[in-house]
Amino acid sequence: MDLGIAGKKAIVCAASKGLGKACAASLVREGVDVTICARTAETLEATATELRALGGGSVQTVACDITSEEGRAMVLKACPEPDILVNNAGGPPPGDFRNWGRDEWIKAVDANMLTPIFLIKATVDGMIARKFGRVVNITSSSVKAPIDILGLSNGARAGLTGFIAGLARKTVLNNVTINGLLPGAFYTDRLITNLKIHADQEGLTLEEMAKKRAASIPAGRLGDPAEFGEYCAFLCSAQAGYITGQNCLIDGGNYPGTL
After folding, report:
1. 218: helix, coil or strand?
2. Own/partner pairs for 72-78, CB < 8 Å, 24+ apart?
3. For the segment 127-171, what is each residue's pLDDT rounded down to a tens digit?
4. Cα–Cα distance, 104 to 108 (Å, whole number)
5. Residue ranges of the chain whose pLDDT lies below 50
């Protein structure tokens, strides 16, 4: 299926590894010219080399902290008129809310709520003027079903989701869609960190904990980041212009609700 986005320009945040990298890979294969960013220059450049080997769209890198005003300015200078924006940032650390003060909460809100909003603010009018725009916010399945040890993430991502619910209904008239893509348990560094915490709490090895987690998912396995990337690419496609304001779960059937 030709997604009809060859030649479009995209910004993919936090794309040196994990789900961000998978999204960038899927877009590059579709012929999208991608600007990727991450904090660690060495890892970012290694990822860019891998992505360029796929063929398709071009890849440029910006080593920065996307959660900072300076970092966002650097990315927008490199790609001032993106047609596609994939918002992503490392999630806040797990823990007990009793141990979090104002600084921890502000950092979480800055990274996982305000950074996506500021990037959308900087790019959405250009998308509207060009009559094409796709924004995908990588959030979490915790938006639908909160995860007990991820209170900072639950709160910040829910705030972003609430804001987008209204905005996405305004931009779609001009073929600009905004959606959330909600990952369940995908085999990434972030998941491994959380599994280690649970493993320690239950006296299990990491391997045992991973098997236990996989067995609890109806699909019987953890997700492959490549699957996530393909879903993202479809939400960015020309064919997805009638999908907006949605929170799209990709979790192997783990969420038990009907809505």
Report:
1. coil
2. 72/115, 72/118, 72/119, 72/122, 74/37, 75/11, 75/13, 75/35, 75/37, 75/119, 76/11, 76/119, 76/122, 76/123, 78/35
3. 999 999 999 999 999 899 988 888 999 999 999 999 999 999 999
4. 6
5. none
Label residue 118 exposed, middle or buried (CB < 10 Å: 0-12, 13-18, 19+): middle
Number of other residues whose CB lies within 10 A of the CB of residue 39: 16
What pLDDT is attached to residue 95?
87
Distance CA 77, CA 71 (A): 10
DSSP 2: -
Three-class SS of 48-79? HHHHHCCCCCCEEEEECCCCCHHHHHHHHHHC
**Inter-CA distances, 144 with 68, 149, 155, 157, Å:** 28, 15, 12, 10
Strand pairing of 133-138 and 176-183?
A: parallel
Chain centroid to CA 70: 20
Helix (H, G, I), strand (E, B) or coil at 243: coil
pLDDT score recorded for residue 231: 98
Neighbours of 239 (CB within 10 A): 14
DSSP string covering 80-111: SS-SEEEE--PPPPP--GGG--HHHHHHHHII
Q: What are phi and psi of 94, to 5 degrees?
A: -75, 170
Single pTM value for the model: 0.94
Tokens of 35: 């600007």
pLDDT, averaged across the chain: 96
Please report the sign of the dihedral spanned by the C-alpha atoms of residue 136, residue 138, residue 142, residue 145. positive
